[in-house]
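Notebook, p. 212. Picked up where the previous page left off. The plan for this session was modest: take the two constructs that came back from the sequencing core last week, fold each one, and keep the raw output in the notebook itself so nobody has to go hunting through shared drives later. Recording the first one now, exactly as returned: residue sequence, then the structure token string.
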Amino acid sequence: MHHHAYLWTGPKVRFDQEALRRPPHPEPPPPGSGPELIQRYRAAVAEFPVSELPPLETAHWLVKPRSLVRGSWAEPDGAAEWVRDRLDVYASRFAAPAQRDRDRLGGLVASARQRLAAGGDVSLGFYLERPVYLSLAVVTCEPNRARPGLPCPLR
């Protein structure tokens, strides 16, 4: 088991494009489906695997391009420290002052460490100013508990 980190910042309106954050359904729309449904399916097939947008399900980061991996660790402590470092970098930009509280951020890091040690994934999101959104994720790989069939992006 090991862990991969992902980070995305961008406009909240882009983050809200949920159709691009979902993998396509395994089956295409049935014959006779409306053009809007067919177009949405085609967009998901083309965009989801290459989009830098955070997927709705954290484990689906594993099917994104390997270039989006921001770090990899064999142990959860290193991955949790990456989360701590990212929170330190971005905390001053959090839109909600209460989210900047050091004790709260320390609790998030401790929780991340525990979840990763148990084989889970970590996904955190924060509104930054302007409105910009920050998504941090650490995904447990080989196996991923939620999606054990997903391959490692670095193999």
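Okay, moving on. Second construct, recorded in the same format:
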Amino acid sequence: MDDGLFSSLMQIGEIVKRAGVSHRTIHHYEKLGLLRPGDREGAGYRYYDEDVLKRLEKIAALKYLGLSLEEIAAVIDVYFEDLVDIRDKEQVLAILKAQRAKADAQLAGLTAFRNDLESSIARLEQLIAAARRSE
């Protein structure tokens, strides 16, 4: 590995620190195929490039959206590589559409909850105002 390339790579400790994940998470994601194992150099230390940070950010975002690690494994490459096989694209599309449907259902539930809160707040404000007037 030349020094220029070597200097742009990070050991796992740096990745852990910058991404806010554990060593164990990195190794688990590697086993699941979410991350590619880092290149080994010298004493066997693994080195990672900036792409690993981008993948970790995308994994975190997809997890936040509710995708399981298995679902993320199925779609993660579409964000970083051009899929050639139409079946891969169809699988990713199906997963993303299912997540959108779940998100829509959650939004509808949250909207109903918010409307209920607004009604409760308005009712309590009226009761408090009426109680104050009658004091």
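Notes on construct two before I forget. The CA atoms of residues 126 and 132 lie 10 Å apart.
Flagging for discussion at group meeting.
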